[in-house]
Design a protein that fits this description.
Layout (H helix, E strand, L loop, with lengths): L25 E4 L3 E6 L6 E8 L2 E8 L13 E5 L2 E6 L9 E8 L2 E8 L10 E8 L2 E6 L8 E8 L2 E8 L12 E4 L2 E6 L11 E8 L2 E9 L9 E8 L2 E8 L8 E8 L6 E4 L11 E8 L4 E6 L2 E8 L3 E6 L5 E3 L1 E5 L3 E3 L4 E3 L3 E2 L5 E10 L4 E7 L8 E4 L2 E7 L7 E7 L5 E10 L6 E2 L1 E4 L10 E5 L6 E2 L5 E5 L27 E3 L3 E3 L17 E5 L4 E4 L11 E9 L6 E4 L9 E7 L6 E7 L5 E11 L6 E8 L2 E6 L2 E7 L11 E3 L11 E10 L13
Parallel strand pairs: 31-33, 37-39
Antiparallel strand pairs: 1-2, 2-3, 3-4, 5-6, 6-7, 7-8, 9-10, 10-11, 11-12, 13-14, 14-15, 15-16, 17-18, 18-19, 20-21, 21-24, 22-23, 22-26, 23-24, 25-28, 26-27, 29-36, 30-35, 30-38, 31-34, 32-33, 33-37, 40-54, 41-44, 42-43, 43-54, 44-53, 45-50, 45-54, 46-47, 46-53, 47-48, 48-49, 50-51, 51-52
């Protein structure tokens, strides 16, 4: 280390090279010595070098005093002064594993004692990890049967090493003792195989010395949970700070990598345990809450290197006023007088792509930096369909650029391993696209062992991440006029899903700037138009089978603004006006305020009334969000996201007809709806209120 910069000093090679010996797999460095472990050949060995400044001189080779059919001697080391602890996790002489204590006495290294596990279990890997601090030692046995691993603790009293305690973390501690670390009166032990929110998520436990026994003080989990995340895969303590490696990926693959978490082992530094990634969007401004410990010691908070204003703080929570920052990978860190708490999780920060005042045209370029091989699919337009390419069972890659309109452009293919991919799509040049939101949608980018891939963007104004859930079977936003889209006869009411269930307007339903919300609460999409009906002969016809005709869980939701009492039909779920084999969602006239109701007629013409008139009033001249869900045979009706009615269909006999209408039955003018409808969405799940479009 020269003036704060690490400089390459020298290379040490195995003085006795042979076969596939892993010279340097384990090293320990002190002010006066360098110790190098060699294992996987010839019973293993440990080489000791004397350090004099930048010069390292070979001093001794240490071998197992009980050699056998083993190559693991030297696979774990810890050096403390003139004492060296060496692990040997398995040999024919010691199938349960052992550890050896060497001491430098009379100018030479001497074997002092062999430490064995208190109970010998063949294959327990006792000695896979070792820690030494003065007269105390801790040895990991990560495969002890029945306990999912353990840490055995020893102490040297009056010259004799004695076993004093077994630390067994219990059922959540799979692979406990993989790494152990001693630092004064604190002991750290990892269990990278422990499972909490994810399999193999991993934990680290801190123990404090009370008298002669170790007592559990704290359990840490990662703030970046991931399948096979293995938090605690490795560990190092230095200067009152603990560095923990979280291993991400599949062992033996080039794509495997890790994250280093910086923890505090003196209880005096801030740690970040939670935050809201959504609120950290690049262009979002407003309050962000950060959870953690020792946050009252924080003096500044940085996001992507930009200082943020601290509004409130307590020992467990920080509130900052986030400013707009440049898009990219975000790193959140909290600085105290002596420590830095860095959130190991890095968020994707995407801008929002919006058309300029003269429209949006040209070529959209997207660069994907992905650490793993896979596949991608890129589509532009609500009419696009795509079949993502599977990387493995139930794993797909896909990217969708969703622009309301008839354009359907698609890109898909393989992503080479660890190589960036650049995708380009032409964007129509149209002044009518001014202000149109273009959300970027990622399809199940789960296969990358690097977690969320690092996607970078060029020639974009603003971009945001959004997604159309797989359960959405049909979504009609009625934004066609605002986008200046050409009519495509006969279908020009565009379905935003890949199913492309386009509606055909009959007579003259018209678009209106009268909308219930300027931005859809659930999706954040801009909302500029609704579709309105005159109550005389306007309607929209669809050729598909209405979702409620299938024996599945489903949800239909929409915003409604009625303008007349005597015009009841909202949704009529058959292609003509025959009153059988259909659902009917309608308004029922009241004294002053109509009510929302619905029923269905079975194929045998039996009437099933689900929501009776008078139960759910809907005022004239104002917008109401209405949602009907079906779970099994139970129907629930929500207004503004609040449950208003529930009914069980005790003897179901669902309609079977194909085709349905918006502003439905046209036997006479009074049956057709008068007013406006917006954001009609059908889902193949019974959505909870929090998942409805009206919910933020």
């Amino acid at each position: 280390l020269d003036a704060g910069v690490w400089q390459h000093a020298l290379v040490l090679t195995n003085p006795q090279p042979s076969g596939v010996c892993k010279f340097g797999a384990v090293v320990q460095l002190s002010a006066t010595r360098l110790v190098v472990g060699v294992h996987s050949c010839s019973n293993g060995a440990v080489y000791v070098y004397r350090r004099d400044g930048s010069t390292f001189t070979f001093q001794a080779k240490l071998s197992s005093p009980t050699p056998g059919a083993s190559d693991s001697f030297g696979s774990a080391l810890d050096l403390h002064g003139d004492r060296l602890l060496i692990g040997d996790r398995s040999s024919s002489a010691d199938p349960a594993g052992c550890a050896h204590v060497f001491e430098f006495q009379n100018q030479q290294w001497n074997h002092v004692v062999k430490l064995s596990p208190p109970a010998a279990y063949s294959g327990s890997a006792f000695g896979a990890s070792v820690a030494l601090d003065g007269d105390r030692a801790a040895i990991g046995a990560r495969k002890v049967p029945g306990t999912e691993g353990a840490v055995e603790c020893y102490e040297r009293v009056t010259g004799t090493w004695t076993h004093v305690q077994t630390l067994s973390p219990g059922p959540l501690g799979y692979l406990a003792g993989t790494v152990v670390e001693l630092s004064g009166d604190q002991l750290f032990a990892t269990a990278p195989g422990a499972s909490f929110d994810e399999p193999l998520q991993g934990i680290i436990r801190r123990y404090a010395l009370q008298g002669q026994l170790w007592t559990l003080s704290e359990t840490w989990t990662t703030c970046t949970p991931a399948s096979s995340g293995q938090f605690g895969f490795d560990l190092a303590a230095a200067s009152q700070r603990l560095f923990a490696l979280q291993y991400l990926g599949k062992a033996g693959t080039e794509s495997a990598h890790g994250l280093v978490h910086s923890l505090c082992n003196d209880g005096a530094c801030p740690t970040i345990t939670g935050f809201s990634p959504a609120s950290l969007h690049a262009y979002a401004q407003g309050e962000v809450l950060i959870d953690g410990t020792q946050l009252d010691t924080v003096t500044s908070v940085e996001l992507a290197g930009v200082n943020q204003l601290i509004l409130e703080q307590s020992p467990t929570q920080l509130k900052i006023a986030k400013s707009a920052i440049a898009p990219g990978r975000l790193v959140l860190r909290a600085n105290s007088a002596t420590h830095v708490a860095k959130a190991a999780k890095q968020f994707q920060s995407m801008p929002v792509l919006a058309a300029g005042s003269t429209g949006l045209g040209g070529e959209l370029t997207i660069r994907i930096d992905n650490g793993d091989a896979g596949a991608y699919a890129l589509a532009l337009g609500s009419g696009a369909t795509a079949t993502p390419i599977p990387l493995g069972p139930d794993i797909y890659y896909g990217i969708l650029i969703d622009l309301a309109g008839p354009w359907a452009l698609l890109k898909s293919g393989l992503v080479p391993s660890a190589a960036p991919v650049t995708l380009k799509l032409p964007i129509p040049d149209s002044a009518a696209l001014a202000g149109v939101l273009l959300p970027l949608q990622c399809w199940a980018l789960q296969a990358s062992t690097t977690g969320t891939p690092n996607s970078s963007f060029s020639n974009l104004d603003r971009v945001t991440l959004s997604a159309l859930p797989a359960y959405v079977a049909g979504y009609w936003r009625f934004e066609e006029s605002a986008a200046g889209l050409p009519a495509i006869s006969p279908a020009s009411i565009y379905d935003q899903t890949a199913s492309g269930d386009m509606g055909t307007p009959v007579n003259s339903p018209h678009y209106s700037a009268d909308v219930p919300v300027a931005t859809v609460p659930k999706t954040g999409a801009l909302n500029t138009e609704s579709l309105c009906f005159d109550g005389v002969n306007d309607r929209v016809e669809f050729q598909s089978k209405f979702a409620f005709h299938e024996p599945i869980d489903a949800t239909v939701e929409f915003w409604l603004k009625p303008e007349g009492q005597g015009h009841p039909a909202i949704l009529w779920t058959r292609p003509d006006s025959t009153d059988t084999n259909r659902f009917h969602f309608h308004l029922y006239p009241g004294t002053s305020v109509p009510s929302f109701a619905f029923d269905y007629r079975a194929p045998d013409d039996q009437l099933h009334t689900i929501l009776e008139p008078g139960v759910v009033p809907v005022p004239l001249g104002s917008w109401s969000h209405i949602a009907v869900t079906r779970t099994g045979n139970v129907y629930r009706t929500y207004v503004q996201g609040v449950l208003r009615a529930e009914r069980t269909d005790s003897n179901p006999a669902l309609p079977t007809s194909i085709g349905w209408r918006l502003s439905g039955r046209d036997t006479e003018a009074s049956y057709l709806f008068q007013g406006c409808v917006d954001e009609l969405r059908i889902s193949t799940l019974a959505l909870a209120p929090a998942s409805l479009l009206v919910s933020p």
